[in-house]
Design brief:
The complex is a heterodimer of chains A (663) and B (156). Chain A is built from 21 helices and 11 strands. With 663 residues, chain A is α+β, with helices and mostly antiparallel strands. Chain A folds into 3 domains: 322 residues, no CATH class; 122 residues, no CATH class; 101 residues. In chain A, strands 3, 4, 5, 6, 7 and 8 form a 6-stranded antiparallel beta sheet that branches. In chain A, strands 2-11-10-9 form a 4-stranded antiparallel beta sheet. Chain B is of the alpha+beta class and 156 residues long. Chain B has 2 domains: 32 residues; 113 residues, Beta Barrel (OB fold (Dihydrolipoamide Acetyltransferase, E2P)), CATH 2.40.50. Chain B is elongated, with a radius of gyration of 22 Å. The chains are: A alpha+beta (663), B alpha+beta (156). At the A-B interface, α13, β1, α14, β2 and β8 of A face α1, β1 and α3 of B.
């Protein structure tokens, strides 16, 4: 009964979505206020209906209702409750439900925090989001219904993929989807502006916080995915350039470009058409990412759907959304205008160059991800594009981008002087180069790539320091702390996010340059030495988990005769699917991770063991976290809080300009 | 400088940058493509020498042997028509099993042994990597074609 209620709620939600996607947009076109006012209650009603459906599915999992096909396929009676709940998004149908659920959450958020928007704008935004929702609900109700019954009911379920039975893997999809779907708001803003033909600085100011929030979620989501892969797959890698990872990286790159482009549109009125295009691009890539990963196109743990009808629906849906919005763009964008002019050497110029580089990198990833799929689909042969391609392309494209990233915040809007910038930044440059050359030599192993990586990280950090110092001398304030507090939070957000990138680059560089790995056969009591640490294998013991049996090894680690830690890597066999899983043991640290995983049992109690010493690896995810924190700070800036509070009055242009000179 | 000139320089620089980036990307792309060959294709000498590629198929039952170091393994990859011996040093993935599908990446050695630098098996017990599945299907099609008619049929 409960699953039928969920199913019914989805059908009702579809009806509401159709209303939400048509009447308010029509109302905005003809200027009918009562039609436009349908948008808000429709969005909230849709949220409640999808919430109900979501809870129904959760209930079916909680009570182990194996008469529901999806529940039987992705859970098992032995699976602990928290993983049964997480199994809601453990496969194709449920993740689509999660997607729509998150979409309705964003809709409700828009309906609450849009008091300062003109009514027509809000109606159009919610209308566009309603249309997106129609597509997804239709998809679920026609070809991938999570509430489909299994008659007769299964005696027990097939269990959740063991790889997904992990806290990181549990929160990774919701985070990622918050980001993906969050870009639907920026997308809806862009389309609403195209419909209305009013693309001004106010439009950019309104869409900025939404875009930044989505970007923060996406940043965290990608980082969690990478971190989970690191400890869950047992291979010690943190990024494989696998298509599923690229699928999440591409919207992130587009979103990053969008944030910066919107900043220019907001402050200077330039880049209007470009911002709109990026907003469309970011959301299109989010859709592509969702479907690439969850539709079976990609062959990996993430892929579930193999039904050709689904594939067809997805292709049509993508074509309608992407093609439709690009057509609207081509039709309306010329009206939008290009915005103010600026010199090549100016902050705008550098941001534009950065944007182009980000989009070029995005294009490279897209090519490497989709080309093999196209060849395969056209039956022209099977190829794969490995990590070396992405590495070769990414470094040269990102190097100039990061170099500009250091200069950009110090350059003036409209027109800057190169010699003057060079004088201001000479110390930052000198210190970065010297340190980047010296540190690897001191660490005993110099290579050009390590120096380059360190140079980029140091360049970001030192230019931030120069910028901060200059701004503080220009700011009035009694004390140092008082001056710090005077700087706007949006500025702090930028500084911290950029600094996060510096941490990230440091992590990547150090891991790539100095990690040591060893595959070794270890008898009980035997030792191996790696990165200054001595690992002693003390054998394995058997134990039984809730839905698996495991061999747990214990490895004693010491350094110069002192005990450091004992590590317990495991080899688990999940009984329902008879699948073997490697659970690595990690001893994390600020400057290094020790990573141990069990290979295979050999004769006489010996095992093949994989040992890693990974310097600075946690800086990779730490850097991402710091980036997201920067984003959060930027959203909490005063100007947005004022905007929420002041519902009726628009910000007068004069005060806006005055504040710009401060920031 | 007139705005028109400025725009001209802008577009010129943009195009130049775009051309540079495209060159870089396409060049890297071409260099790093990894092609896939079936065991039959490898046995017939179609696979490139001295260049990396991927091979996919079934791991033949009973073919897995381990050297004394516990790390170097030998096994045979087959598409039921032809067999290719493979050598790999390292830890095999969790799902690697005899009688199951697998994909290996590496180079062909002088003696016809495939020296794998990486062995991939997918994370699903019943799941056959598509490359491996295709290799088996092709071999089957080729065998069927040979027995049923004298026409030379391209297995693709």
């Amino acid at each position: 009964m409960i699953p039928e209620i969920g199913h019914y709620a989805l059908i009702l939600a579809l009806c509401v979505a159709v209303v939400q996607g048509t009447i308010p947009i029509y109302g905005a076109a003809v200027g009918n206020s009562s039609f436009m006012s349908v948008a808000k209650p429709a969005a909230r009603g849709q949220f409640l209906l999808v919430l109900l459906a979501f809870c129904c599915l959760g209930y079916a999992f909680a009570v182990k209702d194996f008469s529901v096909l999806y529940v039987a396929a992705t859970s098992n009676s032995q699976l602990p409750l928290h993983y049964r709940i997480a199994a809601i998004w453990g496969a194709h149908e449920g993740s689509l439900l999660l997607w729509v659920f998150i979409l309705t959450i964003w809709m409700v958020a828009v309906s609450f925090f849009s008091g300062h928007l003109p009514e027509a704008m809000r109606a159009r935004i919610l209308g566009v989001m309603g249309l997106v929702s129609v597509g997804f609900l239709l998809f679920m109700l026609t070809v991938s219904n999570p509430f489909e019954r299994l008659i007769p009911a299964a005696f027990d379920g097939r269990d959740l993929n063991p790889l997904l039975q992990d806290p990181g893997m549990v929160i990774h999809p919701p985070m990622l989807y918050m980001g993906y779907v969050g870009f639907s708001v920026a997308f809806a803003f862009a389309l609403a502006a195209l419909f209305g033909g009013t693309l001004d600085a106010a439009w950019a100011r309104w869409s900025r916080p939404w875009t930044t929030v989505a970007w923060c979620f996406l940043t965290i989501g990608v980082a969690i995915g990478s971190g989970s892969a690191y400890y869950e797959l047992g291979w010690g890698g943190w990024w494989f350039w696998a298509p599923v990872e690229n699928a999440s990286l591409m919207p992130w790159l587009a979103g990053t470009a969008l944030i910066h482009s919107l900043a220019v549109t907001d402050k200077r009125g330039s880049f209007k058409a470009w911002s709109v295009l990026l907003a469309i691009l970011a959301f299109s890539l989010s859709l592509l990412g969702t479907f690439l990963v969850r539709s079976g196109v990609l062959t990996s743990v993430h892929a579930f759907a193999t039904d050709p009808k689904r594939g067809l629906f997805i292709l049509v849906f993508l074509a309608v959304v992407i093609g439709g919005s690009l057509m609207l763009y081509a039709w309306r964008a010329p009206r939008v205008g290009l915005g103010g002019s600026f010199s090549i050497v100016s902050r705008e110029g550098m941001l534009l160059a950065n944007n182009v580089l980000l989009v070029a990198a995005l294009g490279a990833v897209l090519l490497g991800t989709l080309y093999p799929l196209f060849l395969d689909a056209l039956d022209l042969g099977k190829i794969s594009v490995g990590p070396p391609y992405f590495d070769t392309v990414f470094v040269p494209l990102m190097t100039p981008a990061i170099f500009l990233m250091g200069i950009g915040p110090l350059a003036q809007w409209k027109k800057a002087s190169l010699p003057e910038l060079a004088v201001r930044l000479r110390w930052a440059f000198g210190v970065s180069v010297a340190t980047a050359l010296l540190v690897p030599i001191l660490m005993g192993h110099w290579s050009p790539l390590v120096s380059l990586g360190l140079l980029l990280a140091l360049w970001i950090a030192t230019t931030i320091a120069v910028d901060l110092r200059e701004r503080l001398t220009r700011t009035d304030g009694s004390s140092f702390m008082g001056k710090l507090a005077m700087l706007p939070r949006a500025y702090w957000g930028m500084v911290i996010a950029h600094f996060g990138l510096a941490l990230f680059i440091t992590g990547v560089t150090m891991v790539k340059g100095f990690e040591v790995e060893q595959d070794v056969r270890m008898n009980v009591g035997e030792t191996a030495t790696l990165g200054g640490y001595t690992f002693r294998f003390d054998g394995t013991e058997q134990y039984r988990g809730p839905n698996y049996i495991a061999a747990r090894g214990s490895i004693h680690v010491s350094q110069d005769g002192r005990d450091v830690t004992v590590m317990y890597p495991e080899k688990r066999r999940y009984t329902v699917q008879n699948q073997t899983m490697t659970e690595a043991a990690i001893s994390p640290g600020f400057l290094r991770d020790l990573y141990v995983s069990l290979g295979e049992p050999l004769e006489g109690g010996a095992w093949s063991v994989r040992l890693y010493h990974k310097p600075f690896i946690d800086w990779i995810w730490g850097g991402c976290l710091v980036m997201a924190v920067g984003g959060v700070l930027a959203i909490s800036d005063r100007r947005y809080r004022l905007a929420w509070r002041r519902k009726e009055v628009e910000v007068p242009a004069g005060t806006q300009m005055a504040r710009q000179t401060v920031s | 400088m007139k705005p028109r000139h400025k725009r001209f320089i802008f577009i010129g620089l943009g195009l130049l940058a775009l051309a540079g980036a495209s060159m870089l990307i396409l060049n890297a792309f071409q260099k790093n493509l990894v092609f896939f060959y079936t065991p039959t294709a490898v046995a017939n000498g179609e696979a490139p020498k001295g260049q990396g590629f991927r091979i996919g198929g079934m791991v033949e039952d009973g073919s897995l042997t381990r050297e004394g170091d516990g790390l170097t393994v030998h096994f045979v990859m087959t598409d039921t028509a032809k067999r290719v011996p493979v050598t790999f040093k390292g830890i095999l993935p969790d799902l690697f099993k005899e009688g199951k599908g697998a994909v290996a990446q590496g180079q062909l050695g002088a003696d016809g042994t495939f020296l794998a630098s990486e062995v991939l098996a997918k994370h699903d017990e019943n799941y056959m990597p598509p490359e491996a599945a295709e290799a088996l299907a092709k071999a089957k099609a080729a065998a069927g074609a040979q027995t049923s008619s004298t026409l030379v049929v391209n297995p693709r």
